Amino acid sequence: MMFDLVWLIPTFPLAGVLLNGLLGRRIEDKNKSLVHWIACGAVGLSFLVTLALFVKLLGLPSDKRLYDFTWFTWIAAGDFKVSVGYQIDPLSMFMCMFVTGVGFLIHVYSIGYMWHDEGRYYRYFTYLNLFMFSMITLILADNFLLMFLGWEGVGVCSYLLISFWFTDVANAIAGKKAFITNRVGDFFFAVGMLLLLTQLGGHGVWSLKFADVFANAYMLSPKLITVICLLFFLGCTAKSAQIPLYIWLPDAMAGPTPVSALIHAATMVTAGVYFVARCNVLYSMSTFAMGVVAVVGALTALLAATIALTQNDIKKVLAYSTVSQLGYMFLGLGVGAFAAGLFHVLTHSFFKALLFMCSGCVIHAMSGEQDMRKMGGLRHKMPITFYTMVIGTLAIVGFPGLSGFFSKDEILWKAFSGEQGSSILWLMGVLAAAMTAFYMFRLIFMTFFNECRASEEVQKHIHEAPKTMTVPLIVLSVLSIIGGYIGVPESLGGSNLVEHFLDPVIGLGHDKLFQSAGGPPLMHNISEVAVHHHAVEAEYWLMLIAVGIVFGGILLAYLMYMKKRSLPETLASGNPSFYRLLLNKWYVDEIYEKMVINPLRSISVFLWKGIDVVVIDGLVNSTAKFFMNCGVISKASQSGYVQRYAVSFLVGVFVLVAYYIYIR
């Protein structure tokens, strides 16, 4: 019966939305602190309920870790019914644990960061709580339609949060860009969902519940499955910032830094990864779709890493790092290593939230400055921020022993040895890892070492952030260190607890799980993709190569930004075209502007001025003018003067007499 409390997890943030949304202005005027107590308390309570259910789930046998809670019927139309229902299983609880946990830390961090934002403090926390409600709904939903409601909800909230400081035109444009780009992906997602419903409906299955869809997926043809998977993946490329729809994420840096941490770490951008993992049954039935996911993920990881090499905005570097790390996750999913991809989602949520929040502390201390070329020498004035950010950096580059090392190594190994993997995919992943090590330590050296390049006025105000901001940093730095040990692979003496925990949903127990939901055995068992026999020695060699390349990237950054600091400028001046290419992000935005946005704008202007104004408005206005002129003419004959009526009468008589005399 304890699992029936699952409805409380999304309800607490929703209650925070209603309280701060409806009464926030009054609350802020009387007691500003009460605003964040409501918001943080709501997410904290959601985390506690999630933790209790997670512990309860761990106490059950692996084949019993599935529970459906139906709250009420949402839509009923003939044979088609959709309920507001939540499912508790290893995957949903795995995601919900760190989404609510990291989300709570970001809420606490926001107190110090947003405290001086007068007049909109309550609105900010209302948006944060609404974002959490939407993300939790997306994760816990037991059907595609309710999940899509949460999917759209996080899209709307991202628009509200990215453009929170909307009086700045750049922020407003960034929010609009994020919203429109995500709508493009959502269109394909919706088409895929409708196609799935209609095709299963043709076989008598009018349901969008995950268990029903997966149990009956064998009825659909392989080609149809491939089309549906590709449509869904196009939706994921927008939400999780993959080629070709990744362009909104770097611009999302215009929002407050806690928003960047929330969107880029554990919530919105991981929604696409979660969805592909949730639909692993469908993707395992299409080798082509899996290949597309892997290739797009590898290309995105590599492309974003090259762009991050030359960025000077501290948050932009982290933004492209997020895009690259998401590429790693999709690479893992595409080669069949679903557990490895999700494991990297977990570790990434720790160190990326940490890195963004550290960058927020730096920006806060630098009076809003984000250009790393104007920083330097901050490690002595901001020791907590410095040490925690170094820990996050070591974790993201895959330093041995830290969380990112275990999850990255697992993905790279499966990219090399998996049935869907190849040496080319592995090489692309390793090159991206080497560049990650370089640009992340470039960030560390430019920000915290050498002399401070800020103005004297700014230097006077450099100080460590308040405890509401530094305590979450310490917690996340600890998690960035120890978080990877729950997924230590067998080759390193571990048992990979993450993979075993997720096994009932994406591993060997998948058939049994969905047969227990009433479906027949699946035609394609995901375990055939997930299980590989490999040589431990080969894995060791590949691990050593990857670690060696990472250390090479760190040493190169040290050489260029500590020892020979003139070297970057020398290289840039010696290769100006290539440097500008990277600095301008491969001109992808300019290409989209010329090839997509401008043609669409021209078509829109033609439809507006040519069709709407000239044809449609012209037809309506011409009709109105015709009858108006008719009225003007008839009005002249109805003047009210008796003399005119008499003249009209005589003229009429004259015309009639003339007609009868001369014509008849």
C-alpha-based Rg, rounded: 30 Å
Output the structural class: mainly alpha
Question: How many individual helices?
Answer: 28
Low-confidence stretches: 522-534
* Distance, first to last CA: 103 Å
Strands side by side in the biggest sheet: 1-2
Proportion of beta-strand residues: under 5%
Mean pLDDT: 88
Largest sheet, strands/sense/barrel:
2 strands, antiparallel
Could you spell the SSE succession in H and E letters? HHEEHHHHHHHHHHHHHHHHHHHHHHHHHH
**General form:** globular
List how many beta strands DSSP finds.
Answer: 2
Give helix % range.
over 70%
Supply database-style keywords.
mainly alpha
Summed up:
This protein has 664 residues and is mainly alpha-helical. 73% of the residues lie in helices and 3% in strands.
Account of the 3D structure:
With 664 residues, this protein is mainly α. Among the domains are: 167-549, no CATH class; 588-663, no CATH class. The protein contains 28 helices and two strands. It has helices at 8-30, 32-58, 90-114, 121-140, 144-162, 169-201, 210-215, 222-239, 248-251, 257-266, 271-278, 280-284, 287-308, 314-334, 338-365, 383-397, 403-417, 423-448, 456-460, 467-482, 497-506, 510-516, 527-530, 536-563, 567-574, 576-583, 588-636, 642-663, and strands at 67-77, 80-88. A two-stranded antiparallel ribbon has the order 1-2. β1 and β2 (80-88) form a beta hairpin. α3 (90-114) runs antiparallel to α20 (467-482) and α14 (314-334) packs antiparallel against α18 (423-448). The radius of gyration is 30 Å and the shape is globular. The N and C termini lie far apart (103 Å).
